[in-house]
Design a protein that fits this description.
Helix content: 10-25%
Distance between the termini: 83 Å
Largest sheet: 6 strands, mixed
Number of strands: 16
Shape: extended
Structural class: alpha+beta
Length: 355
């Protein structure tokens, strides 16, 4: 017999807490109190079949479709697929410091390249920074590249140049950057300085004719980050280090490049033709949605080989060994292949060999 389970009701809802240690199932539901008007039915349909109903969707179901769930389903099936992959690839902005099988780095000169107004980022943690006299007063140098200039610098001891290890970075202008002269056994926090130069070095890119779009707080919690939305008429960054590239924007502010993965457009109607790196081609799992439009680009096709005679001698075997495999290859002399010796030593269950 089922046990009586107490029901606790408050002003707007009731709850049941069944005893622990048993399994339960719902046998029936009293729907007499559930609204059954057209809009409520449409809202329940959309709550179960979509990411959530909007008033516009509810009005469409009740008005244009007369509340017919089958008609709504047929309409959805007939729509072109809006694939999450394409939506995601247009918006992802993963940080990277080198090309991978996922994608190459977006060039500083390309639309969508990302820039920061603060000097240090997480890639600098563990690196050595040198504070030296120069520029606007003092220069902070990493791997021989000046990253910013400051009017004053009173951290550490000893004569300049002073060398520090970057222990920790908070990526925001004036937030803490921990510097240490004893391998982070102790450290001193300085404000993360804005990128600044008294006069732009020759390596700094000139983006005077470009357009930059600040990332809003909805997208990112930190300020001082912009995207390149219109490239300058002339831009060349091939010779610049990807983690230490700087530019001066239209308003005269300086920024440091924050390299990100570049994703290629790879949609049903426009399959990708460029590789993600030198050795990898775009590859998407075949599904019922894309199988009619999958294409193998010529540059991504499998390698094909033609037949050619190979002379089996000492010189050939030596080439195979020195070609990178470092494996010994043996050849056989006096092997008889006529009857009754036609059985191949490579395919028979047993073959006998002597040294």
């Amino acid at each position: 017999m089922p046990a009586n389970v107490p029901v606790k009701c408050e002003s707007l809802s009731c709850s049941v807490t069944p005893p622990v240690g048993s399994s339960y199932c719902i046998r029936s539901i009293d729907t007499s109190a559930i609204p059954t008007d057209e809009k409520s039915n449409a809202a329940r349909l959309l709550s179960q079949a979509t990411f959530g109903p909007t008033q516009t969707d509810i009005d469409h179901v009740t008005g244009d479709l007369g509340g017919d769930a089958k008609a709504w389903f047929a309409e959805q099936v007939g729509l072109p697929p809006s694939l999450h992959r394409a939506h995601y690839r247009r918006r992802m902005n993963a940080r990277a410091n080198t090309a991978t099988v996922t994608g190459v780095l977006r060039s500083p000169c390309e639309l969508g390249s990302r820039w920061q107004s603060y000097t240090f980022n997480l890639y600098d943690e563990g690196k050595t920074v040198t504070a030296q006299v120069g520029g606007a007063g003092y220069q902070l140098v990493i791997n021989g590249v000046v990253h910013t200039e400051m009017a004053s610098f009173n951290v550490g001891t000893g004569d300049f140049p002073r060398v520090f290890k970057i222990c920790q970075v908070d990526e925001l202008v004036n937030m803490d950057v921990d510097l240490s002269q004893d391998d982070c056994a102790s450290h001193t926090a300085i404000p993360n300085p804005p990128v600044h130069f008294a006069a732009p070095p020759a390596e700094v890119l000139n983006f005077a004719g470009a357009e930059l779009q600040p990332l809003s707080a909805v997208v990112i919690k930190r300020t001082g980050v912009v995207l390149l939305t219109r490239a300058p008429s002339s831009c060349s960054a091939e010779s610049l280090p990807p983690l230490a590239t700087f530019m001066v924007g239209p308003s005269g502010d300086y920024f440091r490049h924050d390299p990100r993965v570049k994703t290629v457009d790879n949609t049903l109607d426009s399959p990708a033709v460029e590789a993600t790196d030198a050795a990898t081609c775009p590859a998407v799992t075949k599904t019922f949605l894309n199988r009619g439009k999958c294409r193998r680009q010529a540059a991504c096709a499998r390698s094909t080989y033609s037949s050619a005679p190979v002379i089996l001698n000492d010189e050939t075997l030596r080439i195979w060994y020195l070609g990178g495999t470092l494996r010994y290859v043996y050849y056989i002399t006096g092997l008889r292949l006529e009857d009754p010796y036609v059985k191949s030593p490579c395919t028979s269950a047993w073959s006998r060999w002597s040294r």
